[in-house]
Structure formats: C-alpha cells, structure tokens
What does this fold into?
Amino acid sequence: MRITIKDLSHSFVTPEGKMKKVLSHVDFDDDISTLSLIGPSGGGKSTLLRILAGLIKPTEGEFFIECKKTGFVFQQNGLFKHWTGLENITIPLEKVHKYTHTEALERAEELLDRFGLLKDAYKKPSELSGGQQQRIAIARAVAPRPNLLFLDEPTSALDPEYTVEVLDMINELKDEGLNFIIVTHEMGFAKLACEKTGFLSETVLSQGARLIEVGKSREIFEHPKEPIVKNFLDKILMW
Amino acid sequence: MVLRSQLIKKVVNALLASLLVLALVWISVLRLGVSFDFSFIIQFKSRILQGFLMTVALSLIGFVLSLFIGIIAALWQNGKILFLKYISSIYINFIRGTPLIMQIYLFYYIIGTAWGVNNRFVSGVLILSVFEGAYIAEIIRAGIQGLAPTQVEAARAVGFTKSQTIKLVIIPQLIARILPALVGQFSSIIKDSSLLSIIAVIELTQTIREISALNFRLFESYLFLGVLYLCLTIPLAIVGKIFEKQFSFET
It folds into this structure.
C-alpha cells in the first residue's frame, strides 16, 4: 500500500498559550504492509499516526494513503464506556457501515469467538481487564474489514502478560493480510513482526520531530545508519 | 454463611440505631410533658391532602422548568459566546450565593409587582425553578467537564458523524453521570418548596402551619409534616441509589 507524505508539519497551542511544533517537515514515500513507528517519547509518533488516520488536520503539508477504509486503536479507554464489548463492535457496524443488526451481530460474534472473547462480550469495559479491553478494541477496529489499521501504543498501558496476548492478536491478523501502522515501544515486536520501521525524533537542529530513518525493520535494528537511531537503540536495548 | 452473619450484623445495628433515635425523641417528648393527639389528621385530611398534592405539583413543575433553565445555563456557560457565558455566570453565582428566602421575597415583589404576576402558585413555581436551575446548571456543567475526551476521539475514529456522536455517545454518558445528582436535586426541590409558604402558597408546610395555628398541636403537626416529606424523599433516595449502581460503569 502506497503512502506518501509531503513536507508535513504540525504545531499546537500549549495550555500556557505557546505554540509548540511537534512535527517538522516529515517526508515519506513508500509501499508498506506493516510499519512500526518508534522513537523517544514526545517525539510526535502519536501525532503523526492521528494525522494519517484523519483524526487531526496537520497545520502544514499533505499526505496520501491509497485506501479509504481504516481503523484505529487507542492506547487506552478507546471503548465506549456505556456499551458492552459486543455493542462496541455492533453499533458502529450498524450506524457507520450500514450492516443490519443480524449481520453486525454475526460479524462481532465471529471475531470475539476467534479471539476467545465471547464470554466477555456482554460486559462493559469497566468490568474487563486492560488486555481484554484492548483486544475488543482491536476487534472493533477490524470488524468493518479495513484495509489499514492504525495502532497507537496499544500495549503501553498493559501488564506484560496482557501485552503478549494483544501483540499475538495483532500478529495473527497480520498473517491474514491486514496492513497496519503501529506506534510502539515493544522493540521486539517492531523488529520481528513489522516489515518496516520508521524512527521519528527531534534533532538538535530542528524543533519538532522528523522521520530520521525508515527501512526494513531488521536493517534498522541491526545496522542503523543514523547515529541518533543507533544511540537510541543502544540505550533501550541495553537491558 | 459469611453473608448471613453479615446480614444479622446489619439488622442488629440498624435496629439499635433506630432505637436510639426513637428513645431520644421519646425522652424529649416526656420532658415536654405533652400527650400525643393525632386526631387532627382525620379532621383536616382533605386540607392536608390538598397541601400535599400542591407540594407534589410545585416540585414536579419546578423540576421540569429548572431542568430546562439548568440545561440552557450550562450550555451558555460551556459555549463560545462570551456575552451569554457571563449572563449565565452572573445568574449561577448570584443564585448559589444568596439564600432562597431572600430570593423569594425579592423575586416575589419584582415578579409580582413589576411584571404583574398575581398568581402565587405561578410566582412560586417560577422562583423555585430559577433557584434550582442554577444548581442543576452546575450539575450538568460538572457532568460535561467529566466526560473523557478519549470517548469523543473514539467516536471520530469509528466514523460516527457529529450528530451520531452527540446522540449515541455524549448524551447517554452525560445522563449516566448526572442522573443520580439530578434525583438528589429533585429531593431538594421538594424540601425547598416548603419555603414558598412565606409568600402564602398553600403547599404542605403552609397547610400544616395553618392547622397548627388553629389547634396548637405543634409537636404532632410538625412530626407528621416530617413524615409526609419523607414519604416523598425516601423513595427518591432509593431511586438515586439504584441509578448510581446502574451507571457505575463510569468510574
């Protein structure tokens, strides 16, 4: 899937009333199937993901994605709190994608069953563990069969054992041909499960992050070209 | 078994607490040296019933009107038009910062005299609604502020339109957040309506005042008055608790 980003920048006004630049002249033009975005915290990864997903408008620049239907998974609290897990999947299918109630129910049950979530289908998010919530959120995002899924640190609020079950689910969906872009701190997942990786960070020279290096995941992790990427990976992979 | 012993513990303690309260009342009564005579209830039953119904009517209409006023004030306060924001702010702060009894006298003469509303019931309902509306506005404002921004973002992410987001996500969550507090406010309206007796709206309190002025049975009259208010407020408290439980997904 072709993704083109041209000279994209984004600023926002802080609560103190100052302008803060988060993204600075991001350029990208490549075919991707699965892409991970990594980099230091506050490096604009989530902002870039939200822009690509159409949740926020960039202040400057433009981008093109070859597909229309996308899905989005938030870091946490993305499920609607007043609906059960099942309703979280069926209601958007009915209201947005014009499924009939029966079709929506069938699709939701099929997904929940597959990922072992059917017994929790009638619980509200507050009654579910963080891992269950995230897996239902992923099921909701893939239910309308999107061409591309955006995942914004889907495991960073989770305990390790839940992290694994969520990453397993994403990997399983990948094997079925789902394309995704994931912002993540799980370096193992970025390296092994994602075809490509992009490193996003501010530099000494620029205010606002830019895409420092993009390439095949294995290459980025094993032979990073840019010193800033190498430093970052050395530091976080030390333990 | 554990559940059962807990239940016994609860029942015993509830009985003890009730007994203590009753004993205190009983001792007070003995010290006063009065004997009970509740016969006035039968004697004045139609007047009492009328007063009771008047209080119910005042409170119901007052609740609907104050809800209406409260919603508008809350929307203005959360809105972007500065002028309306300030109007709402002045209204809420004035009402919440002054006692109801002062407002009743003030508005009764303003509304009654300047605007020619001579009907005490209409004036009473209006005053009560204006007063309670300010509190309801605060309840709604707090509810709106407490809505998680991620819920609106999620609505966008799944593809809901703006009106779908309001209808399917914001309003149901807002109602869940504010319903228990609104029920409590309804209970306040019932109690606050008693103050309208000072402008001679013949509601429950005023009725009992008139009756006790005739028969000098102050103690029994006001005790019975309390019981009648509890008949209205205790069921509401129970409903409020049920709502709280039902909507506990918020926390």
About this structure: Residues 160-175 of chain A form the longest helix (16 residues). The interface with chain B takes residues 53, 55, 71-72, 74, 76-82, 91-92, 95-97, 124-127, 140-141 of chain A (CB under 8 Å). Strands of chain A lie at 2-13, 19-31, 34-38, 60-65, 70-73, 148-152, 179-183, 196-201, 210-216. Chain A has a mean pLDDT of 91.
